[in-house]
Amino acid sequence: MKTALRPYLKKYVLLTFSSLLLRVYGQIYRLFLLRCFGTEPFGLLGMIFPFYRLLSLLITMGLPTALVRLIAIEQAKKNIARIRQAKKKVFTLVATMAAVVSGLLFLFAAPLGVLLYNDLRTGPLLKYYALALIFHSLCLVYRGYYHGLDRISPLAFADLAETLGETVFILLFLLAGPRPPLPVEAAGRILAKGVLLGEAACLGALFLYDRYRVRPQLITTTTTAQPAAGRKLLPLLRSSFPFMAQQLILSLARIAESVLLPNLLAKGGLTPSQIAHHLGEYWEMATPFLLFPLFLFSPVSTLILPATARATVKNNLPDYLRKLRRLLSWALLYSIGVGLFLLKFAQPLSLLLYKTTAATRYLPYLLPALPFMTMNSLLIPVAEGLGKQLFLLRATLILIFIKTGITAAFVPLPAFGLVGAAWGLTVSQALLFCLLLKETFFPVTPNSKWFLLVKTNLLHLPKA
């Protein structure tokens, strides 16, 4: 058992260490940028980013996720020629789509900025994000390719290259350019250029790793492969459609928030400058308190999807889920403890990091979502590994409806503001956890003696 778990442990340690390193560095780096540029440029970028993610999803069409499963199957069969063929076809299709969509976005950036965000300052920023789309889309394909080959080190290496590429550019600008504070438009352009160069550095790192490490090994093993007649692209697209649909709904939820929140705050009487300032506090100061504790479990979620798929093939799914239940128990205890700690020491931590306590007013409404978000990050790949894509589609639609309704009802009220958005996030994550739990654990292990930390016989009423 220890020998069987050793490869997973090494991958988990690598992903956890790299994730922790990048998160700690990212928080320090983001804190430095907040002090240099202020919160308003980050508010502008925060409005654009969900739209950027949506376009990247439409460009890739769910192919990176489908490529993970396809390559894992073909590698198990030692069909190396088919792996190379599928990779080439997916790269060609995604690169073509990225060039077309990026060109249109670059040409119509200014009117789109006014239409979506009612802010002329977002137009020039959209042009930089249009160029970054090409690099980002190809990086997603590379990530799916390496994930299917069960190579975790290039994924961590690519994240490091992306962060360093962005950091080096901005630090060089701060050393050689004009001293902060800069106008909001100029600061936003500098940050957007950093994103562009970071994506380019990420793609370069992934390409070099493939060129000098992966491709020579695949060539040497091609002699044992099956003939290269291979799969056609159309079946792969059909298998990727459920993944694209589910991710599309999630992206629509994010872009809806980025478009709705500025308009709802404007209905509450705030000016564009005040809206960008408040959104910068909510997205860049308060939300990191919620997302940072997830770093311990995000590497595990990367490994769960293929492990769940293998468990279904080997017909040992009940035993696998019983082991996973222990992980859920630890995730629950961990997230509750961290949430209480952050709630108690929110003000001194905020003063230490941001020199202001403006973001702490959102934490009592955001932190209750932490236990649900942690366990959902483990349960979602389980549902994907079980092939429950249609369930995830339905669940996501329900959550969007509930979250949007809560947000639209409370954000325009001056007494609530963005607190209403925090309530919408917490309620939706709690509901998602209940749905995931019912769909994954209950049908497979209905007679298990333990459920999370509670004996199941304690959950039933005594018979009369």
Please supply descriptive tags for the structure shown above.
464 residues; mainly alpha; 2 domains; two-stranded antiparallel ribbon; 17 helices; 2 strands; globular; disordered C terminus
Helix content: over 70%
Instruction: Write down the overall geometry.
Output: globular
The H-and-E topology, N to C, reads as HHHHHHHHHHHHHHHHHEE
Helix-and-strand structural type: mainly alpha
Q: What is the rounded Rg?
A: 23 Å
What number of domains?
2
- The low-pLDDT segments are 223-230, 446-464
**Count the strands?**
2
Largest sheet: 2 strands, antiparallel
Number of helices: 17
Provide the β-strand percentage band: under 5%
Side by side, the strands of the main sheet go: 1-2
User: Span from first to last CA?
Assistant: 45 Å
| Overall pLDDT metric | 79
Describe this structure in words.
By secondary structure, the protein is mainly alpha-helical. It has two domains: 10-237, no CATH class; 268-453, no CATH class. The protein is built from 17 helices and two strands. A hairpin with a 2-residue loop joins strand 1 (450-451) and strand 2 (454-455). Helix 15 (370-385) crosses helix 17 (419-444). The longest helix is centred in the middle third of the chain and has 37 residues, at 184-220. The protein is globular and about 60 Å long. The model is unreliable at 223-230 and 446-464 (pLDDT under 50).
